[in-house]
Amino acid sequence: MKLSNLKSIYAGIANACGLAENVESENTVSIVDKILEGTFALDDYLSYRYFDEENNLFLSDGNVVGFMLEISPIVGVDDSVHKNLSHFFNDELPEYSYLQFLLVASHDVEDILNYWQEARINPDPLLDKITKRRAQFVRERAISFGVSDGRIARDYRIFVSFSQIIDTKNNGKSGITGFRDSFINKLESLQLAPRTCDAVDLIKLVGTMLQMELATDTTASYNPLELLSKQIVAPSVMQVIEEDQITCVSSRLVSRIYHIVIFQS
Fold it and tell me: InterPro entries, per this entry (predicted)?
C-alpha cells in the first residue's frame, strides 16, 4: 500500500474517533467498523512462532515442530532417485508427520546473477560492460510480467519442509533432529546438495509468496524476541486473498500455488 493511502485510512479513523475534532463523532463505532470491514491482520493466520537456533527447528502453534531444507532443482533425474527416496520415506519417515516438497519459480534472480558475475570479473572494460549488460537483461526478463516475449528469467528452487506434533515432556525434538540428519545424508548421497534453512530463509520465502513485489529485498533479519509470524509480512502492504490466488494491491501481482492431482481410472 502506498504511504499516502495508508495516511488517508489513519486520517479517516482519527476523524471517526473524534481525534481531529473538538468533540467525538456520534457514530464513532459504526464508522470505524465500516472503514475496517473485511480487513484482518494476515500474520494472525500464520502459525509460526519461534526459531530454535541451537537445533535449527521451527516452533509453531499446537506443539508443532519442524525443519526446512533447500535442495538442488531436480532436473533430468532418472527413476533411481525416485525409488531411492520412496524406499527411504517408507522406512524412515516418522508416523503422524508431514513432509512437503515446494518448487518455487521466483523472479528474484539476484543470487544467481551474483554467483555468475563473481566468476566473470575482468579488468577489460569491454568484457566488464558485456557482463553487466547481460545481467541487466536477465533482471529485465525476470520482472517483465505481462509483457514478456517468451524469454522469462526465473530462479527455480526446491524447499522441503517437515513438521510433527511433539511430546514436550519427553523432548520430542530429538526424534525430529535424528530424522533430519538421516534425511540430509540420503539427499547428499543422491547429490542433491541439501542446505538447512533458518528463520531468515522462512521469512523471505513465505513473505514472497504472500506479498509479492517486483523489488527484491535481501536485508531480512530475524529477531528472536518477536513472534516469527509478525516478521514475515509487512502490515502496511494490503492484499486480496481469494480461493485460488493472492493479489498484492500495490504491485497488482498475483501469487498462485499449484499441486498435482492423481486421477485413478
Answer: TraC/Conjuga_ATPase
Question: For residue 167, what is its C-alpha cell?
Answer: 511430546
* 241 bridge partner residues: 246
> Which candidate, 70, 63, 43, 45, places its Cα nearest to that of 198?
70
The domain locations on the chain are 1-39, 41-235
How many CA atoms lie within 13 Å of 31's alpha carbon, on the beta-carbon side?
15
21 contact partners, CB below 8 Å, separation of at least 6: 15
Residue 101's H or E segment, with its range, is strand 97-106
Record the pTM: 0.75
Q: Which amino acid, residue 173?
A: K
**pLDDT tens column, 38-87:** 556 777 788 899 999 999 999 999 899 999 999 988 777 778 888 999 99
Tens-place pLDDT, residues 174-207: 899 999 999 999 999 999 999 999 999 999 888 8
